[in-house]
Automatic annotation (TrEMBL):
This is Predicted N-acetyltransferase YhbS. PROSITE patterns: GNAT. Transmembrane segments: none annotated. Residues 4-144 form the N-acetyltransferase domain. It comes from Micromonospora echinospora (Micromonospora purpurea). SUPFAM superfamilies: Acyl-CoA N-acyltransferases (Nat).
Length: 308
């Protein structure tokens, strides 16, 4: 067996890169979102043995709102994978070093990732943070407020939903400042079927939306935007479907926000607090205090549609 080299990816690596991801993530096509990054090859770092990719890390620069109201350039880490036979050899740490070096050159303030295996990243300086949300039984179904309608949306609706999203998250720490490219490519990819988009309309204008995921006995609400009445209409529609589906549990993966809180009784009965600890951050040019202020700020949240 020959030695391993560490470098940026090239188009010629694509077959073995995809097979590496397929081995690591057999239930998810992570390459679909990766393919929306125009600079993906130059920011994908690979470990190569015998001309074959055996491990990979992708870095994507993103603009995230900070606790002080400014916007930070953040290095998002994604698609971290190692072939099973190559694990335990330090490939990911070497590739993360290359990614952080690139972030430093690019001027990133800090790095962000989401994972179910935090121990892999602690040795590279990443630390976990917590995001709260709620779950409970679906609320009884209710009609939308007068003048409101809720209809299923499609991927073609996403660009038109940028204004309510921007208004809802204008001062939300940890949220992403989405570009037109994000609305046309990344958000539809993350919220592709079986996720479902619902749009709240008033006076012929889309003024709010909700993304839900349904499975046996469960409904998950993973993103919303809009004012209190829009959310009441959307939550009522979800509750009605949950009742028809005989769902027993609803997860509202939503921020601690006054607008959400005012409308939540139309979605949940007997809400229970929950905690998500899959997020990790690492300073690059910023200091640790800035990261702690942003991740711990009231209402701070990162939407799954902006995952990396």
């Amino acid at each position: 067996m020959s030695g391993v080299g560490y470098r940026t990816a090239t188009p010629e690596d694509l077959p073995s890169l995809r097979s590496t991801w397929a081995e690591a993530f057999p239930a998810t096509d992570v390459g679909a979102v990766w393919a929306t990054d125009p600079g993906r090859f130059g920011r994908t770092f690979v470990a190569v043995r015998d001309a074959r990719v055996v491990a990979a890390v992708h870095y994507l620069p993103r603009r995230l709102r900070a606790a002080d109201g400014t916007v930070d350039l953040v290095g998002g880490v994604a698609n971290v994978a190692t072939r099973p036979a190559e694990r335990g050899q330090g490939h990911v740490r070497r590739l993360l070093d290359l990614a952080v070096t690139a972030m430093t050159v690019d001027g990133c303030a800090w790095a962000l990732l989401f994972t179910g295996t935090p121990a892999v990243y602690r040795g590279s300086g990443f630390r976990t943070f917590r995001l709260g949300y709620t779950s409970g039984r679906p609320a009884p179904p209710t009609a939308p407020p007068e003048g409101w309608t809720v209809r299923p949306g499609s991927w073609t609706d996403w660009p038109d939903l940028a204004p309510p999203h921007r208004a809802f998250n204008a001062h939300r720490p940890l949220s992403t400042v989405r570009s037109d490219h994000d609305w046309r490519h990344r958000v539809p990819a993350w919220y592709a079927p079986p996720a479902e988009l619902l749009v709240a309309w008033k006076h012929g204008e889309p003024v709010g939306y909700l993304v839900r995921e349904r499975s046996a006995g469960l409904v998950r609400v993973v993103e919303v935007a809009g004012g209190a009445e829009a959310l009441r209409a959307l939550f009522g529609a979800v509750a009605a479907t949950a009742h028809a589906d005989r769902a027993e549990r609803c997860v509202a993966r939503l921020p601690a926000d006054p607008v959400v809180g005012a409308a939540l009784p139309w979605l949940l009965s007997d809400p229970v607090p929950e905690v998500d600890e899959t997020g990790m951050v690492r300073p690059v040019h910023a200091d640790a205090a800035r990261l702690a202020a942003t991740t711990g700020a009231p209402g701070a949240f990162h939407w799954p549609g902006d995952y990396l």
